[in-house]
Design brief:
about 300 residues, alpha+beta, Alpha-Beta Plaits, 2 domains, 4-stranded antiparallel beta sheet, 9 helices, about 70% helix
């Protein structure tokens, strides 16, 4: 064991510049990879929280409304209203349907604009009655929205999913861009580790040849190189973990959570989960290139 540790230290010292380059590359690539994982957790958290709360609103025609399936100057008839409700309830994607009358809509309008000059501009008869739809799976909203929009007596169908989909698409693009950048850097780190270990093995080819002649096992020959790459990898993992934790505390805890209270935010559990996955990837990144780079030197 003493020989192994001495050889490991000798290899690290001999290739100090390349070892530092490997540590920096591993740390940066793992930090980006961990940030991508945390972004994915945040997107899923927001999607789960908001999608469950968003409902589809189907606004009916009035004498004052136009567009949609309305007839100019005519409101939705009782027969059309009943047909709309029956059609919505019969849809297998619909969990519940709530009806809001014109009077209820007017009372909500009065509550929202209680201190506004707009309060005097509307009467109960000018308000639109509507159906509120709660879905079984909030992500499957397109079919329900399309069906509701095609029913006679429907003036407009509104939902927040289109806005949310654009938001989630943008966040997803950021997430995958971060992971793609980290993948390129991880590849660069793997190549650096492979080259560093290959140079170290080449410089010690005479000692390795002697050990092979005296019957040293593959593990005994390989262990110093594995320890060299593991030391560099673990240091890179520790730096990346610290950067992720500090970044989460500064960006999320101290700023985002205080300024944007309407959004749910990931917690320390998600951060530690990302660090765990990041550590597994970092260790694999250190071990696999080493095994590949030294395979021809350990064949006994």
């Amino acid at each position: 064991m003493r020989h192994t540790l001495r050889e490991t230290w000798s290899g690290l010292r001999r290739n100090l510049a390349m070892t530092i380059a490997v540590i920096v590359t591993v740390a940066v690539s793992l930090t980006l990879f961990g940030a991508g994982l945390m972004t994915s957790s945040e997107v899923n958290l927001i999607k789960g929280r908001w999608y469950d709360k968003v409902e589809i609103s189907v606004f009916l025609c009035t004498e004052y409304s136009s567009g949609g399936r309305c007839v100019q100057g005519e409101g939705t008839t009782d027969a059309q209203r009943a047909t709309i409700e029956e059609t919505l309830k019969a849809n297998p994607e619909v969990q519940e349907v709530f009806y809001e009358s014109k009077q209820e809509a007017f009372e909500e309008f009065q509550r929202v604009f209680a201190n506004s000059p707009l309060l005097s501009t509307r009467t109960a008869e000018q308000m639109q009655d509507s159906f509120r739809i709660k879905l079984k799976n909030p992500e499957n909203y397109q079919g329900v929205s399309a069906e509701a929009a095609g029913l006679p007596g429907v003036q407009q169908v509104q939902d927040m999913h289109q806005v949310l989909d654009s938001l989630f698409s943008a966040l997803g693009a950021v997430q995958w861009a971060t992971i793609a950048m980290s993948a390129f850097l991880l590849l660069a780190a793997a190549l650096q580790i492979s080259n560093t270990i290959r140079l170290s093995a080449f410089s010690r080819r005479r000692e390795i040849g002697i050990m092979r002649l005296v019957g040293a096992s593959n593990l005994y020959i390989l262990l110093p190189f594995l320890l060299e790459s593991l030391v560099a990898g673990i240091i890179g993992i520790l730096i990346a973990s610290a950067m992720l934790a500090v970044g989460y505390y500064v960006i999320i805890v101290q700023n985002a959570q205080a300024s944007i209270t309407a959004l749910p935010w990931i917690g320390w559990g998600d951060v530690f989960g990302a660090i765990l996955i990041m550590a597994i990837v970092g260790i694999a990144l250190a071990v696999v290139p080493t095994l590949i780079a030294t395979r021809k030197y350990v064949q006994v």
